[in-house]
């Protein structure tokens, strides 16, 4: 029982439901056994079940505030129906009662209460209903009405001899048809997945209508037998309604892609066609035919609406496929399509320009403020870029922090449209500065294929970005070198000489470009950590004691920390830290050996040792070049990398006089 009721149902209500189910079972068994006409079952058990159902519904109205008016109306429907049954039991003689009496008045009075309750339930869900759902409900309502009219109305009209009896019997059919219409409408509006409470309400009301229809049909054809199993189904409908009242309330969601949503209109169309087909073989009332035709028209309208919705969905899907979800700009796919079209026009004599932007500082902003703030920044910049290019070009977001703009005409970096786009991608605030590196490609002069245009724009953008980074790196290096020179002028001469030797040796070993520059910078700055070492230790004329040596060995770590303060010098910082490691692993600060030591650090170690040996010291004279080379070779394989020593030995004549690097 507990799984059928919500947790809010009190114990007396649970007991009432247990009694209802037990009594229904007794009534059903009595009907099957042929004792259904006995007063004990036909009146006492039958009406007792209905009274318990009404009591459960009234308790729901009194104890639960949610949807109180709805359940008050449905409780009124159940109470009025029960009152009609009680009146009929009291007034009937030998199971017969003339039409038009008080029971009929009460039965008719129950219908409007049921209609009103269902309408209020529908109003509570109205915000979820779409035109398609309304059409589904209409299809269900018209088809059920058509079927009922075809099966029941024809024999009722044929059997009723007196005008008063005919009106009453036809009125019941019409009232039941309307009830089925409301149930069908509610089922369709729920996407044919109404949930437990709505399903029980629909079962209760539709079963009442169907049982009434069967009763009317059997009465009209003379086949009705009092006390049969059919009699159990009337109070069972009220029990289902009482169960619906105490169902747990769960959030409702509509699945508009369910199989039922597609299958039910087809099923109802088949039923409507069956009614029309039956009209050719036997007598079917005109209302049934009209309702069946109306149902088919509603099915056709539903199909047309489905076609329209699918077209809209297809357009929306295409739009989503070509639009960046975060910024609303065209995405890479859209840009590629437009670029192909632009290139076709460019080859026909209408040149254009592709501007490729990559944000500077965005990663740091994301790390500092979080991804949500980063997304918000991208949205703001994209909006600014869209506004800046409106009327002059088309903006796109390719992904991440990359943006692109297609502009008409062959224009340069100083063009107002390019400058406006670049300005739109700048933003400054407390603790951050965002800009953009730019790569510009003229179409078709620089590239006449989309892939080549994007590749070239990307290459030029990164060249500009690297130039900016190199400028920042150069400024930081110059600052540190100036500080080093102010502290110890001779140390500056030493680092310059080591840098020249290191660059030449790096090239001899096959390094190129940025790698050579990093080795040279590391050679220049490998002693920057000595700024933190006392002059008394640096200038001590005699040997250092253990404590002084421990402090001196810290200068590579200090140098790394100083350089890491400038992100552009991070690769150089790693070389500085390892510049006093030894090939045999006996160096400092990490004790790494052989190839574990970065190649740039191995080069700096050899060049630093050579320059130290060939320079005068307060405690000794400088060694000649040949003796210094011999000393390097003597320690090759222990202190120094043998390959670096040999490369240095063959390079040093060309590097004896340093050149700018």
TrEMBL record:
This protein's UniProt keywords: Membrane, Transmembrane, Transmembrane helix
Domain GGDEF: 350-477
Domain of life the protein comes from: Bacteria
Descriptive protein name: Diguanylate cyclase (GGDEF)-like protein
Membrane-spanning ranges: 41-63, 70-93, 105-122, 134-158, 170-191, 198-218, 224-246, 258-281, 287-305
Taxonomic source organism: Solirubrobacter pauli
HD-GYP domain span: 469-661
PANTHER family membership: CYCLIC DI-GMP PHOSPHODIESTERASE TM_0186-RELATED, LIPOPROTEIN
Matches recorded under CDD domains: GGDEF, HDc
